[in-house]
Amino acid sequence: MAGADPIETYRGAVAAWECDAFGHMNIALYPQRFEAGARDLMERAGSASGWRTVALHVRYLEELRAAEGIVIRSGLLEREGASVRLAHEALKPSGERTTLAEHVLRHDDAAFASVSLAPIGGWERFSPPGLPRGEGTLATARTRARATLCEDGALTTGGYTHCFSDANLFVMEAIGMSSAYRSASNRGFATFETLLSLEGRPAAPGDGLVVTSGIVAVGASSLRLLHRMRASADGQLLAQFYQAGVHFDLALRRSAPWLPELRANAEKLVLAAL
Fold first, then answer.
1. What is the mean pLDDT of each run of 10 residues along the chain (274 residues)?
2. DSSP 7-72
3. Domains of the chain by range and CATH?
4. What contacts 24+ positions apart, CB below 8 Å, involve 254-257?
5. Closest CA to 88 of 55, 115, 110
6. Quick check: 13 and 68 in contact, CB under 8 A?
7. Closest CA to 239 of 203, 191, 194
8. What is the pLDDT of residue 1?
9. For residues 103 and 84, what is the distance between their CA atoms, to the nearest angstrom?
10. Which of 46, 210, 193 is nearest to 126 (CA)?
């Protein structure tokens, strides 16, 4: 049986300051768009407040660059107890799909988590990536939850992703993709999939945060990473972030094979199997 159609929940554009050193919108800026779309959808469903993100799985199909428009269409995939799973698709104004996401939200009170939405049809469900149980030992972040990245007393999903995006640069350095290498070879890193999972208590403004990272797998031009964030005060796991991307030719805007020495360095950081 055919389901409901997704509806438009966001329309905006990419600002120049939202683009990173590699020339496309920073992955940390996607969550706020999808959360805006989710809020719009839940308002239409008559349940705007009390929801918080617990997971956001994103697949990046095409780059979004400065001054490009973004249209997001969203819909309900399923409801289970106090949680909902939403689907989002981001498109350029021409209709070209650039990004897909599955977004899990949980309500503070299951008794008030009413949702008057029909599930959408035609969505091919995401499969979660297989992740190792081990934790990377590469130190990639030690910081504080900035008040400017918090909302309602907690770090936003964009705030978590900012931290993990920064952590990725330290992984690049560790395998030999230094700023000097990137500049001389005109290479960067383009992410094609992420999965943010919020595991523990929300990080509050000023909380100390520590991130360690490791590599899940190395491909001909790809790298799959696992970052884990803990509270520096007591070591509690707060969030984890799976990130998959490619060694990227910044002139041709496409993947480029790893140099043998970079690949060898990366393989030394691969985490133990499941």
1. 86 96 95 95 84 96 97 94 93 97 88 73 93 90 96 94 96 97 97 96 96 97 97 96 98 97 96 72
2. EEEEEEE--GGGB-TTSSB-GGGHHHHHHHHHHHHHHHTT--SSEEEEEEEEEE-S---TT-EEEE
3. 1-115 (3.10.129.10), 129-274 (3.10.129.10)
4. 255/190, 255/221, 255/222, 256/187, 256/221, 257/220, 257/221
5. 55
6. yes
7. 203
8. 42
9. 8
10. 193
Q: Which amino acid is at 160?
A: Y
pLDDT of residue 81: 82
d(CA 40, CA 43): 5
**In the prediction, which pLDDT does 177 show?**
97
Note the pLDDT of residue 203: 96
In angstroms, the CA 28 to CA 33 distance is: 10
Burial class (CB within 10 angstroms; exposed 0-12, middle 13-18, buried 19+) of 131 = middle
Distance CA 166, CA 247 (A): 17
pLDDT reported for residue 114 = 62
- H/E run at residue 103: strand 97-107
Angle between helices 30-44 and 157-174 (to 10 degrees): 160
Element containing residue 149 per DSSP (H, E): none
Q: What pLDDT score was predicted for residue 39?
A: 93
Instruction: Write down the pLDDT at residue 55.
Output: 98
Residue 56 CA to residue 119 CA, distance in Å, equals 18
Look at the pTM and tell me if it is higher than 0.90: yes
